[in-house]
Amino acid sequence: MTDFDLSPPTDAQRAELTEALDVDERRxxxxxxxxxxxxxxxxxxxxxxxxxxxxxxxxxxRSNAKFDSGTGWPSFFEPYDPDHVRILRDTSHGMIRDxxxxxxxxxxxGHVFPDGPPPTGERHCLNSVSLQxxxxxEPLPDPLGRGGAERxxxx
Length: 155
Description:
By secondary structure, the chain is an alpha+beta fold. The protein has 2 helices and 9 strands; from the N terminus they run ααβββββββββ. The chain has a domain at about 40-135: Peptide methionine sulfoxide reductase (Metal Binding Protein, Guanine Nucleotide Exchange Factor, Chain A), CATH 2.170.150. The chain has helices at about 10-20, 25-30; strands at about 50-55, 60, 65, 75, 85-90, 95-100, 110-115, 125, 130-135. Strands 3-4-8-7-6-5 form a 6-stranded antiparallel sheet. Strands 2-1-9 form a 3-stranded antiparallel sheet, with no helix packed on it. Strand 3 and strand 4 form a beta hairpin.
């Protein structure tokens, strides 16, 4: 059970957060787009910390779960907390895939595949524009003003 408030943003918060997104962030997060492989900001990031949802700030993945999948997108073998992501069936582009969305705001993050490393065997393949990074010891983003666990640091 997570210590984070997973209730969705209000309509007013959603409108304000949407205004702060650039064109690529809107296309990926809100319209289920994909960034080109090999160009994402976090592809080669080796810093210690937590990756959070670019839209609502929910912690999604820890840096110690990140691995080089060779796919051109940041990849992780497990989420920060299983309750922080939802898996949806994606049948777009003539394929059947498992889409990963933020459990709080529903923003598109990427896809999960069953070809990752131990211990989970999962490869959560994410778009960098769907993420923010908080270095270890820094306060996590709290764009919804929730306080509580939302004020914790990336540990």
